[in-house]
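Subject: sequence -> structure tokens, single chain

Hey, anyone have a minute? Need the predicted structure for the following. Not urgent.
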Amino acid sequence: MTAAFSWPPIQAGNDDLAPPIGGVDCWAIALNQLPSAAEPAAASLLDSIERDRASRFHFDHHRRAYIASHAALRLLLERYLRAPAASIEIVAGTHGRPMLADAGSGLHFNLSHSGNTALIAISRIALVGVDVEELRAIPDLLELTRRYFAPPEIDSIVDASPSTRLNAFLTIWTRKEAFVKALGLGLSVPLDDFSVGQADRPGHLTWLRGGTPAAWTIADLSPGAGCVGAIVVQQQEPKLHRRVAVWPWLLTAPRSANCSIGPSERSGAGSALS
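Reply:
Had a minute. Here:
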């Protein structure tokens, strides 16, 4: 496997964050470290649609992870935008891409979570997509590979040893998911219309059918043990800032926002996060 960007030791961020200039901030968050006592306050930051989605999870740990990941996004945006988290409205774009209702901020962002890990990318320079997947058994792995992947990707997974095949599959999968999320076109882009390279080599984009050539950067990520991730940015070789957001810091409102994470009423207009 090609080397992935790993994360630095856990550390809290600054009270105030300037929007990334000339690069992308990629945050790793341990969702299971949200204190139980803080869950109601975190849930209060979600809009009505997100709260409804959270209530439909059958398993409690899935509900908690959903609440934690979406609250973390709003708490990070609070610092970049210097505005109360409860006032930040996230809507769905033309093809469902999550975006800020206030387009004047110039910020692009993307969220993914799996298991106990969330990745959140925030950029001012270009469109961005992230994906993270927990390592887990996938019984129909080869069937999924042949059904959805492009020929160069299929070869790299089929040829992988049994001990590395799962990691190879998830490396390709997260690259492709991150790219589709960066495009913001959803399922309208078949996954076998493009290739993100072989799993054991650095990712690169090749359109096989349709698509418009553009400058895209694909980077594999290793945000923690037991998960595989990827980030895709619509720019050549952007600077990637890897950061860790710890809950004691996230749950403390920045002074610049002049707010706290108490109960709030949100309209829930067009939430687009998944």
